[in-house]
Amino acid sequence: MEQEADSAYxxxxxxxxxxxxxxxxxxxxxxxxxxxxxxxxxxxxxxEYGGHIMRGEGGSSVESHVCLHLGLTDYRTFVGxxxxxxxxxxxxxSEVHKYADHVCLxxxxxxxxxxxxxxxxxxxxxxxxxxxLGNGAVVETxxxxxxxxxxxxxxxxxxxxxxxxxxxxEPQDAGITSHPCGSTDSEFINHKVSQxxxxxxxxxxxxxxxxxxxxxxxxxxxxxxxxRLNVRxxxxxxxxxxxxxxxxxxxxxTAQDGYESTQLFAVSMIELENMxxxxxxxxxxxxxLYKLMVEAMNNIP
Length: 301
Description:
hydrolase; alpha+beta; Nudix hydrolase 9
């Protein structure tokens, strides 16, 4: 998973053969929540906004299974840290990394998810940021095209850029607004959070593209990318759609969240390669994860 030092993204986790929901587990725990910054003036500068999201904190992977470590964060902290013009001040300096003794990385939003894979320096560097875990789907149509959206000029982040359909997991949709108490509750909630990872990406595709959920195959988790600009992580999935690209274009005009984008593109791999430079860094990383998946599939005897 080597990338150029000046690339717009970093691949935190790659699962090129694609993992189903049964191969992805979650540990959702307060120990993976954001660590307040020791500079009280900087910490107090975080503006007040509402809503929870998942925080990405790290994880571990073996050949056929991955475990994600998720905490809880909120939109207020996301805006006040990752989207703050001074976001780099929330990062732990590299010279401090070697003295740290724990690992932490992303989150659930409003509950947001904060994500945290066991990634040593990367987790430690971002421990004072909200790092809400976004998601994105590489959707392949029945005529072998990949779907891309062009974001509206009225959205807050990356207006006019090309993106894969996606958003972020919604903890409240799984009935989660706080961390569990007790081992029995923890096991139950860990399962609910894990399922929300997969349910949420299907929901985002349906709402943003306008296709019926029955036309979508079960998502396969292919990894996590983090953009270098304001260190936002995103989980990416591969989803096959049974509809052809011309059918999807017709459905797009009635998409529930169609206002977030201005145009839907159904492109080939070569066309996608040419458009990638106009994607946010984490989505460029999503494309890199997809290419690793295609390469792995081509190498299967």
